[in-house]
Amino acid sequence: MAHTELDLRERRVIEDMLNAKMPVSKIAVELGRHRSSVYREIKRNRFADDELPYLNGYYGMVAQKAARDRRARRRKLIRFPELRKAVIAQMKEGWSPEQIAGRLQFEGRRPRVSHETIYTYVFGPDGQTAELARHLPSRRKKRQPRYARRPRGLVFPPDRSIHQRPDHVKTRETFGEWEGDLMIFERAQGNANIASLVERKTRFAVLFRNNDRSTTHLMNRLMTVMEPLPQPARRSITFDRGIEFRNWRKLEPGIGTEVWFCDPQAPWQKGSVENLNKRARRYLPRDTPVAALSNRNMRAICDRLNGTPRKCLGWRTPTEAFREEMMKLR
């Protein structure tokens, strides 16, 4: 289905339903649009004025004008033939769109044009007909979005695959091999979540509240939690390929812990932490107000999980098994 921009009727519906305090999900259903499109529309075209804060909000007519003005800017190279000729001439000389836009600004030429507008034209219908992309320094046939995700192959390289993980980790022969994951909660809880860790040999569980899903915040919190352990008690950790783990490289120099990753869409390869999450849900259902959980609450839940005898440990508790392994390190 071809992409179509919202029209004035749809924008007025959004305004009316927002004024009626309707959730964005219901607005999206009413319009037959994806909720992400509606969220993006409200964020992009919301009126905001620091001097008149009481007027801030979403207005259909204001949003329509803002969208129309943006489209006009994008069509600048169609509306101004002389500007278009100058841009194309410089492209044929091997200049990049950024160099062309910068030079026009330096010379004080009017109208100006941004490098984003040039790229939009190059990869639009008129630019593709004229085969302008072949004049770009990179000679791409298609342009990657400005905020495109990084290729997962670079974030999670092959040499960090679970298939390269030493066999002694798989067989649970050695102590200090961990698995990690995030427990996610209902949207109403915001970005708050709980990180779950389990030591593979002893099944010892560690849960800690995490108020931000950003990878930097998570990795910093994880290092803070694991750093008090002696080095042999934090040899490695295995994650899935969630984007919240993409800053994994901080762990090896930070706390000396090796990192391994499951195959894509294969969470069962870290079965210990998946099992932990399932058991922890008894105390942490998806509607839990995570931000209200205190450190004492989290310790109490961990104590219950680690104080329960496990058949796989010969009916010892994870706490007992973990202490035995820690004693061996002294």
From TrEMBL:
Keywords: DNA recombination. Residues 138-163 are annotated as: Disordered. InterPro entries: Integrase_cat-core, IS30-like_HTH, RNaseH-like_sf, RNaseH_sf, Transposase-Integrase, Transposase_IS30-like. Pfam families: HTH_38. Residues 162-326 form the Integrase catalytic domain. This is TRm24 putative transposase. One of its GO terms (molecular function) is nucleic acid binding. Residues 138-152 have a biased composition (Basic residues). GO terms for cellular component: cytosol. The keyword Protein biosynthesis does not apply.
